Amino acid sequence: MLTDSQIERYSRHIILKEVGGKGQQKLFNGRVLIIGAGGLGAPIALYLAAAGVGTIGIADADDVDLSNLQRQVIHFTSDVGIPKVESARQKMQAINPDVKVNTYQEWITAANINGIIADYDFIIDGTDNFAAKFLINDACVLAGKPYSHGGILQFDGQTITVKPGESACYRCIFPEPPPKDAIPTCSQAGVIGVLPGVIGTIQATEAIKYLLGKGDLLTDRLLTYSALRMKFREVPLKRKSSCPVCGDNPTITEAKDELDALTVCDLEGA
Amino acid sequence: MKITINGKEVLLVENSGRTIDSLLEELDVSQRLYVTVELNGDILDRPAYEATPVAEGDVIEFLYFMGGGSGHVD
Q1: Structural domains of chain A, count
Q2: Does residue B14 sit within a domain?
Q3: Looking at the domain assignment, is residue A26 inside a domain?
Q4: Residue of A nearest to B66 (CA)
Q5: Which residues in chain A have Cβ-Cβ distances shorter than 8 Å to B45?
Q6: Which CATH number is A95's domain given?
Q7: Is residue A131 a contact partner of residue A263, using CB atoms and an 8 Å limit?
């Protein structure tokens, strides 16, 4: 049951017919894991905490670096040098003490991902390297966990939500990661600081809608965003029967590290 | 020849031998070796690019890899 102060805190949610007291309770019972406490993870963590998602996991092995602050709005100048997950936890709990924050100060690997995602209803990929992106896709598809993919570069972003076994997954689009260093990264190519705010906020919206069970998720369509042209586009997609992980004859049957794809996206921690 | 690429109509000189592979080269598409091509709603397997002709009215999407978010040093 919501307390009086919670009813006041969430009043603008509760007044929405799609949310109401029941929906707010669903959010409070919801468990969302954010992988990456960087550009994408920052707005995601802030908004999910503010929204009253009851349990939020956040995973990142890095410390806050000065070069992060141009876009990773959850980290402040005074946080430089401390673990990102700790910096994020402090802000999330300052916004909303109702929220339980689980921190994982480690990189997600094939060895630990299954154990971590098992505790959550919805996973959000806020990582910047393809090894992690493919690992998250594979682990979520194999475990049947819905998840949101997000990617950003320079002035462009894209995002898609994956419902394993029902909608197209990341490997339906990209069967395998690009070779290491084949694709420029944020640290090499730059990223406009507001971009992860746009894409991350869409990812957080998907998590909230999933928990509420309302609306249409961003499945079977890749949403692309150009900040320079200020255009959103939707590319319709469908599951691919030859997909190596969710297709008819999958060749990937357990989460594995894509060692060839590991990139140094940001030596200072993107 | 008129086709649609990433939502935009593009006029190309007539070329009956044009394939997805040659189109990528002709347009100097970025991430040419890694881009995913969706042709009229179906994602093509990369080995098929060379043998897949481009026809009048085709709707083509080039889908690019994007990283972003939080970094990880190997």
Answers
A1: 1
A2: yes
A3: yes
A4: A151
A5: 175, 242
A6: 3.40.50.720
A7: yes
Domain extent at residue B35: 2-63
H/E run at residue A8: helix A4-9
Chain A CB contacts of B4 under 8 Å are: none
Interface predicted TM-score of the whole assembly (ipTM), two decimals: 0.86
Tokens for A114?
């299954």
**CATH number of the domain to which B45 belongs:** 3.10.20.30
Q: Does any domain span residue B36?
A: yes
Domain span including residue A136: 4-261
**Could you report the per-residue pLDDT of A196-216, keeping only the tens digit for each?**
999 999 999 999 999 999 999
What pTM was computed for the model? 0.93
Q: Which long-range contacts (CB under 8 A, 24 or more apart) does A16-19 make?
A: A18/A212, A18/A214, A18/A215, A19/A212, A19/A214
**B39 domain residue, yes or no:** yes
pLDDT tens over chain B, length 74 residues: 999 999 999 999 998 899 999 999 999 998 888 899 999 999 999 999 999 999 999 999 999 998 865 544 33
The pLDDT assigned to A218 comes to 98
Query: Nearest C-alpha of chain B: how many angstroms from A129?
Result: 6
Of the candidates A182, A158, A156, A184, which has an alpha carbon nearest to the alpha carbon of residue A237? Answer: A158
